[in-house]
Design goal:
alpha/beta, acyltransferase, cytoplasm, globular, single chain, 11-stranded mixed β-sheet, 11 helices, phospholipid metabolism
Length: 355
């Protein structure tokens, strides 16, 4: 599918390193990804960051970057709904309004994830047929050039079986049209491969996925299967998914640090690192969560990327790339069409009158 120029709103004040890291990643994306960037937040602080980059030869045309004023920020310690109602000019709310009014096609935030999700539900609403949205995160696998989509990784700590079934449908569509997997293999995260394993939620969900013709279900996936490459999509509740996400990120950082420490020991080590530098760079790209840019909030009527609070410029750049992929592949309309089809397939036919 051919790409077109996208307009992406970014909460420039969200995250530990805002607005500096946000602006850095946004500028790189504006110059390389054929996107127009709307930086939402304190105009003086954003402009100051922009001026720091003006000497850079890669600085994009200013027509590709626009500042949208917003003088309030939802802080990490605040309760999302009350903060959004009280701070009507907060950067996350103003950015979400741009998407609602079709002035932007996607929103990205490294700020309060609860506020981002609440704002998306309040201003964009859910897709028809979706009870709960889910955050999808892309993980690397042991198979080169193959990833796995895990959802939910934090939006819903408690899930009913029908929520997990909906996650599976959304994950299938995203895997097909954005990740390019022609025939995705969907798994249900569980404590065993057998259909009889797991709690009541897992047992009921398993049967629903077996019965759903829109889900290419390949059975239960154990924890060791997550990075094996045997599945393209794995569904779980947000409590388990968030634990898996944080564990994987921590493990990746530990492995990178251990390699760095061990391979630089002594003269031979330093020479070895020089020789292995290209391979180590590829390794880092495969395991570093920064390369994946965050998670897509699937199930809301708009493209919303929620990324790490500690995001650096590279994370923001990759989040914009992720958003543009979703835009180019028309993922929202595809999901809506699929849920309309599921509604038709599961509709109970009306009894015909007796002649």
């Amino acid at each position: 599918m051919g790409s077109s120029r996208a307009r992406i709103a970014i909460d420039a004040m969200g995250g530990d390193n805002a607005p500096t890291a946000i602006v850095t990643g946004a500028l790189k994306a504006a110059s390389e990804l054929d996107v127009d960037v709307l930086l939402v937040g304190d105009p003086d602080k954003i402009d100051s960051c922009l001026k720091e980059h003006q000497k850079d030869a890669n600085f994009p045309n200013l027509n590709q970057v626009e500042i949208i004023p917003a003088d309030e920020v939802v802080e990490m310690h605040e309760e999302p709904l009350s903060a959004l109602k009280r701070k009507r000019n907060s950067s996350i709310r103003v950015a979400m309004e741009l998407v609602k009014k079709n002035q932007a096609q996607a929103i990205i935030s490294a700020g309060h994830s609860g506020a981002a999700m609440a704002a998306a539900l309040l201003h964009l609403g859910r897709l028809r047929g979706i009870d709960r949205p889910a955050i999808g995160a892309i993980f690397p696998t042991i198979v080169p050039n193959k990833s796995v989509l895990i959802l939910d990784v934090g939006a819903n700590v408690d899930c009913r079986p029908k929520f997990l079934e909906q996650f599976a449908v959304m994950g299938t569509i995203y895997s097909q049209y954005v990740l390019g997997v022609e025939e995705p293999k969907v798994g249900l995260l569980n404590i065993g491969e057998e259909p009889s394993k797991g709690n009541d939620q897992a047992l009921r969900t398993h049967q629903m996925l077996v019965d759903n013709p829109l889900v290419p279900f390949f059975g239960n996936a154990e924890g060791r299967d997550i990075l094996s490459g045997n599945f393209d999509v794995i569904v779980c509740d947000g409590f388990v998914g968030n634990v898996v996400l944080k564990f994987a990120e921590g493990l990746g950082e530990i492995v990178l640090n251990i390699l760095k420490e061990e391979l630089t020991q002594g003269i031979q080590g330093k020479i070895g690192v020089t020789l292995l530098k290209p391979s180590l760079k590829r390794f880092k790209q495969r395991v570093d969560h920064v390369e994946r840019g965050g998670g897509l909030l699937l199930g809301v009527a708009g493209i919303c990327i929620i990324t790490h609070g500690s995001s650096q410029g590279a994370t923001v750049y990759n989040a914009i790339r992720l958003a543009k992929d979703a835009i180019d592949h028309n993922v929202i309309d595809r999901m809506q069409s699929q849920f309309e089809l599921q509604k038709q397939l599961t509709a109970v036919p009306e009894p015909t009158p007796e002649s």
